């Protein structure tokens, strides 16, 4: 395991850090700034800022230069992830497109798809959503029922998707549709790229218990999509989806560690404010989760070393998802125990605003489910990595 970065990578860190310092307004770090904005204004600010970042050369760090990327190393991408968190930079408005769709298009898209999708996505000219989950097909994607009926050169799509990130602000959606009548399970599914700005598409927000509405549900009512806007082969969407989802596992976990470590310090500050930092039980819990965090850091550097050496992580990537999600959840369970009777409050007696922390605590309940549940990741690790019997 290599715990160092090259001189060129450290130069990149300095360049990126300087740009972030000069381009993130101080008011964005002011407590309550983002919470005071409505969803549309929040999205607009982040979209414009991310576009400027891309134009400055700080986007698509590992992407080939031919696609508008920087052509950087895995180490540069890890540094980028770390510095974005340390600078408290706004989160991306195009997460699913950048993480999943773009590398898939690079790998198997047509020349026209590469030209039309990758550059505009990098500059946030087009916001992409992912349409996989349905009311009757959550964890079992093969049970989807949204249908695409061939009509000349088009597919006519009818059905519903749910838990779609950025559905209301999306311009296009990459979605799984059953395009072969009578097909079942994994067969006869295609990944279609659908324009959301048409009369046959209706996106509605879903309000979460935290008050946020980043998710939505999407209804297709005779929405039309050219057959040429199929990513991969028609009827072979399952293979395309598995390739697309594999790119989620390529990250080393460094950005997660950096963010969680900062949140840990904020939780310790809450414990101190409430006078619970001297409680031996709380101290033991904080020490335990800090140990988990440092194990995540070392694991992340191990994964980065493997990637830099050109190794395909394969099923071992399930270990990373399992480790960071369980660590994150453990961290916020300690926070809940620290709060005690203040668990239903928005502020502490000293005026500390708990709303951002409370939102993270609620979000933590979901991370061991989405992206592959912990139960599934344990099975994969046991069977595929350790070679244990079913």
Question: How many E strands?
Answer: 8
How many separate helices?
A: 11
Number of individual domains: 3
CATH superfamily of the largest domain: Butyryl-CoA Dehydrogenase, subunit A, domain 3
Mean pLDDT: 91
CATH architectural group of the largest domain: Up-down Bundle
The first-level CATH class name of the largest domain: Mainly Alpha
User: Order of helices and strands, N to C?
Assistant: HHHHHEEEEEEEEHHHHHH
Reported for the largest beta sheet, the result is: 4 strands, mixed
Estimate the strand proportion. 5-15%
Short description:
The protein has 390 residues and is α+β, with helices and mostly antiparallel strands. It is built from eleven helices and eight strands.
Describe the protein.
This protein has 390 residues and is an alpha+beta fold. The chain has three domains: 7-93, Butyryl-Coa Dehydrogenase, subunit A, domain 1 (Orthogonal Bundle); 128-235, Beta Barrel (Butyryl-CoA Dehydrogenase, subunit A, domain 2); 251-385, Up-down Bundle (Butyryl-CoA Dehydrogenase, subunit A, domain 3), CATH 1.20.140.10. Helix content is 45%, strand content 14%. The chain is built from eleven helices and eight strands. A four-stranded mixed sheet has the order 1-4-5-8. Strands 2-3-7-6 form a four-stranded antiparallel sheet, with no helix packed on it. Strand 2 and strand 3 form a beta hairpin. Helix 9 (317-339) runs antiparallel to helix 11 (374-385). The model has no long low-confidence stretch (mean pLDDT 91).
Secondary structure: elements and pairs:
Blueprint: H1 7-23, H2 39-55, H3 74-86, H4 95-108, H5 111-122, E1 128-131, E2 147-151, E3 154-165, E4 172-178, E5 189-195, E6 201-206, E7 215-226, E8 230-231, H6 237-246, H7 254-273, H8 280-308, H9 317-339, H10 355-364, H11 374-385
Parallel strand pairs: 1-4
Antiparallel strand pairs: 2-3, 3-7, 4-5, 5-8, 6-7
